[in-house]
Amino acid sequence: MPKHEAIDQASQNDNEDVWIQSACGMCYNQCGIRGHRVDGTLIKIEGNPDNPIGRGRLCARGLAGIQLLYDPHRIDYPLRRTNPEKGIGVDPKWERISWDDALDEITERLATIKENDPRGLYFSGTVICLAPLSHALATFLPAFGTPNSFVSDGHQCGNAEHILARTLHGSVTTNPDVEHCDYLLLFGCQAGLGTYYALTTMAQDVADARDRGMKLVVVDPFLSSAAEKADEWVPIKPGSDGALACAILNLLVNEYRIFDADYLLEHADGPYLLTEDGWYARDPGSNRPLVWDIDAGKPRPFDDPELGQVALEGAYQVEGQTCRTVFETLKGTVAKWTPEAASEVTTIPPDMIRKIARDFGEAACIERTIEIDGRELPHRPAAALYFKGAHGHDNAWPTSMAIELLNEVVGASNVPGGLLGTTPVCDGHPDTGFPRWKPGANEDGLLDAGMLLYNDPYGVVPGWPPPPTDTELPNLRDLIGWPITTCFTPAALTDKENFSFDHKPELLLNYGSNLLMSAARPEVTFEAFKDTFVVSFNLHSDETAEALSDIVLPDTSYMERLDPLPNFTRHHHPVGLGNWGHTIRQPLVEPLHERRHFTEVLLELGQRLGLTETMNLLTNNLYGLVAPHALDPERTYSWREISDQAYRSWFGDEHGLDWFETNGVMRWPKKVEEVFWKPFVHARAPLYNEWLKRAGEQVDEIVEKKGIKGVDTSGFFPLPDWRPCRAHRAREGYDMQAIYYRVPWHTFSMTYENPWLDEISRGEPYSYFICINTKTARAKNITDGDPIEVEGADGGTIRGRARLTEGVHPEVLAVANNGGHWAKGMPFARGKGVFFNQLLPMDLEHSDLVSLSMDCDARVRVTRMAEGA
Amino acid sequence: MDVAVKIQGVLDRSLAGCKNQFDLTLPNDATAGDLIGRLAEQPDAPLRDAIDPGQTRFPRHIRMFSNGEMLSTLGQPLVRQDGLGVNVNIVILNPMMGG
Hints:
Strand order of the largest sheet of chain B: 2-1-5-3-4
CATH class of the domain at 726-864 in chain A: Mainly Beta
Shape of chain B: globular
Low-confidence stretches of chain A: 1-11
CATH superfamily of chain B: Beta-grasp domain
Shape of chain A: globular
Number of strands of chain B: 5
Low-confidence stretches of chain B: none
Distance between the termini of chain A: 43 Å
CATH architecture of chain B: Roll
CATH class of chain B: Alpha Beta
CATH topology of chain B: Ubiquitin-like (UB roll)
Strand content of chain A: 15-25%
Structural class of chain B: mainly beta
Distance between the termini of chain B: 33 Å
Mean pLDDT of chain A: 94
Oligomer: heterodimer
Radius of gyration of chain A: 26 Å
CATH architecture of the domain at 726-864 in chain A: Beta Barrel
Largest sheet of chain A: 7 strands, mixed
Mean pLDDT of chain B: 75
Number of strands of chain A: 36
Number of domains of chain B: 1
Radius of gyration of chain B: 13 Å
Helix content of chain A: 25-40%
């Protein structure tokens, strides 16, 4: 059906003029929106002032979403590939098929796979659509019996940051409490200024904080959206943020002696004693970690009720060994990172490093308190935050640790003014007590976050991290099971030297991800799945669909589907005081053409394959559904019915789906002890990652037994340190580092097809170019607008036009993320921007093996090309 | 009481060909932990982990449902109030969503 006829049919509702509350889906932040529909046509999207997520504001992407709904290049019908040849840039020669034909074939293949070996089903998904993704991961895939899933944009995700958000903050991620903060130090991050979690809410809060006088310092190789608004922009060589953070730590704990001793003694493992070989010294009877009782002159378990004054610093004799406290060991570990040493690798002048350390430490106001809602709380108005720019390297783990510990040593962790976990504590709606979650303490007294991606009405489920057991899974989840997202699967499947698996991908179900563009160098992903039957759920015929897919199914956009509780996982909520907000995503229009909701299709596939019983049980688990709203395993439910039960289970029978369709969002006030939970939950932050030391030994044992040479656990540091990532290391003939940066109006590769967002890019001087420092360019005889070629020391070449600017480090080239489309099915995006990821290898050597984070920058050289070359 | 057990999900391939359905008889006051213990005695049960002594919660990647209701601790009883037989589903999760 031609597009205009579909719209005309939808316009049969004469005299309709309605506003519908829903949730945006142009990124993973799920901001509240209202859609204005007139006579069946959506004419406007704006923010929803009643929704705490966004508070009525939207970014450019949210406002431009309407273009995605009526995009004439959307996939509207199931398609089958008729060209037997697969390849990057190959025309699939799509033919239109019916939904029945598509699902019949998919069902037949899946049934065979399930019968033979369910591990033959692989799944890749995008985090942009977190609710449907979670449903697939938590219900369909385990019901089917396959462990082989991965998040294709995982290497652009938090990786190391998520691990530490868990261990130190009880959450998936973090954001600063800018309402009470006076000094915000950002490393490779644009929180509230361009990108990152809860952006639209944070943008308002950061603006208010800046207006109040909060100082903003941004460490970044590129003059990003955050850096350009900062009081100070500190250019840094990519991948060296950890060295800077170690130097600041050294100055704080050793030279300036600015640290929160009370916090470290009571709320962290600062006083825990370490044996000479780096384990917690333990009481022989209880196995509890020991601390030094100064009054008694002997070691005692940390939770001994008769403890006297406990030592935070120093070394003590325990059972014939010299045991230092964790804090003393930290001081020793970072001591070598003088400002001069850090300056060597970062290129930041030593005096600037000293200034940052002094300013941060003094801003933290150790011992200050604040009264909020009648509660007296520690007030530490300094916070350090980081994200991809800092930890998107193969030294992600120690870098992330170093930056996190800046907050910990001054006690600015989960208290007013400091760095907050994204809603680690929820006591639930006042009427029902759901949803609820709260971290606890494990047997060592250390923070245990519980089940991060579920409603957790049953309390903390222990047993994290999962111990390494084997190497049977290409996503490495059985070997390195603690990162949340990883896209290592294509790398493992193609690394025949290190890995062999007794099963192969027979069918790849790809939900919404353009993995050829998102997951580093596309040839690796293509090689991994070129012989696999690929089914994609897509909005567009993108690069992955055209190169690999056998069947493409037309997905609904967020404006055409129902997702109950799209922000149910913790990290979509803004931090800080205010209201909780649980919302609805509901259709602003009925799905156009033959587009169908992925979750509904999964339910149908589940029924066809006899998985409904198990999927119902797991849906109960995913949403924490309790009687009388738990799904009966013997029944079949529609997606509307499931959504209704989820709402009723959480908020009571009077607040089912129909209530949410009318009212849009359930709000209730947050409590002080939910937001600033650290003083109220006695669980210590582990500065020392003893668990990782143990895991490293277990990994070593497994890989040695299997003869795997490429898994190197030397980076499994329990305390922060710094070593260069591959791109940071000098290579003869390659004198620069290339990085990608995020622009606030794009989400991965998806949004380049949007004409309104393209208009922003075309009007902005940098994002379709390769940015190079003016002085560097002149030395290389490159002028503004020249065509240039960037060649990677580890392979890959990209081309674009030079944009000269003072806003990039002299040794760095900067490219806006995920441009350079080539798919015929995305004609608006095609040829615009630069495809950076061609420079990025995907292998063990370029990965941080603690977090499975990849080195997202490259060691390169740049040359000017002749016009027309 | 009669307990019909179905084990589903991401099963341990090292026990390929193992059984995933069991019909057992247990005391009326049997708990989830008792059932796990009885299953662990079966030579061809596909459960990957034994429960450690003193452990009160399920391993992170295992969920047990008794007549559709999820059980959270090993000490929870299986029995229905009406004394009729119990259908137990044990689902082994996708390791990526195990927490």
